[in-house]
């Protein structure tokens, strides 16, 4: 039940053609090609590029590694600004699936927690949502189990007569 980034800045072909790609930003004496329009062109100290020029952010892809039928089964690019909402929505799919499974199999969801992971891009220094993890705990009731049947009998003996309504 994980959604994590896949790959690096190199080795992927981008099928999205950006109409603004190739526009140069003039900050220094050299030209910089903007690959992520709308992002800051300011280069942070120690970073290799600005967020607007970052090839790693442009080519980052997310893919689900679970065996459930949820979104992101194939590697998909999500913009860094939209990744948080997309990952939270994806992890909520796992929580919904846990409740459905419990309802169909005579169970009860005891716990469902979602963790959202963040990382820092090594090229531009921007922090981004790098994935998420969903943990669920489901208790299933097995009425055919002899131990469960004996436990029910003991509970019936223990609780019978505990609450008495006396009408005067």
- Work out the strand percent: 25-35%
Poorly predicted residue ranges: 4-30
Strand-pairing-aware structural class? alpha+beta
**Shape, principal axes of CA atoms:** elongated
Q: What is the subunit arrangement here? A: single chain
Distance between the termini: 59 Å
Helical content stands at 10-25%
Q: In this structure, how is the largest beta sheet organized?
A: 5 strands, antiparallel
Q: What's the SSE pattern?
A: EEEHEEHEEH
Radius of gyration computed on alpha carbons = 26 Å
How many strands in all? 7
Q: Number of folding domains?
A: 1
Helical stretch tally: 3
Mean pLDDT, rounded to whole units?
76
How is the largest sheet built, in terms of strand order? 5-4-1-7-6
Task: Write a brief caption for the model.
With 168 residues, the protein is of the alpha+beta class. It has three helices and seven strands.
Question: Can you describe this structure?
Answer:
By secondary structure, the protein is of the alpha+beta class. It has one domain (2-159). The chain has three helices and seven strands; from the N terminus they run βββαββαββα. The strands form two sheets. Strands 5-4-1-7-6 form a five-stranded antiparallel beta sheet, with helices on one face. It has a two-stranded antiparallel sheet with strand order 2-3. The termini are far apart.
């Amino acid at each position: 039940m994980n959604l994590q980034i896949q790959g690096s800045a190199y080795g992927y072909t981008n099928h999205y053609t950006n109409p603004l790609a190739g526009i140069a930003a003039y900050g220094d004496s050299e030209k910089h090609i903007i690959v992520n329009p709308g992002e800051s062109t300011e280069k942070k100290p120690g970073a290799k590029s600005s967020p607007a020029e970052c090839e790693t952010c442009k080519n980052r892809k997310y893919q689900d590694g679970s065996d459930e039928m949820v979104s992101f089964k194939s590697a998909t690019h999500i913009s860094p600004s939209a990744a948080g909402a997309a990952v939270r929505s994806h992890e909520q799919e796992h929580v919904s699936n846990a409740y459905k499974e419990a309802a169909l199999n005579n169970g009860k969801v005891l716990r469902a927690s979602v963790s959202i992971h963040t990382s820092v891009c090594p090229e531009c220094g921007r922090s981004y949502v790098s994935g998420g993890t969903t943990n669920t705990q489901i208790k299933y009731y097995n009425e055919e189990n002899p131990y469960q049947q004996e436990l029910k009998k003991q509970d019936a003996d223990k609780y019978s007569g505990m609450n008495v309504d006396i009408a005067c």
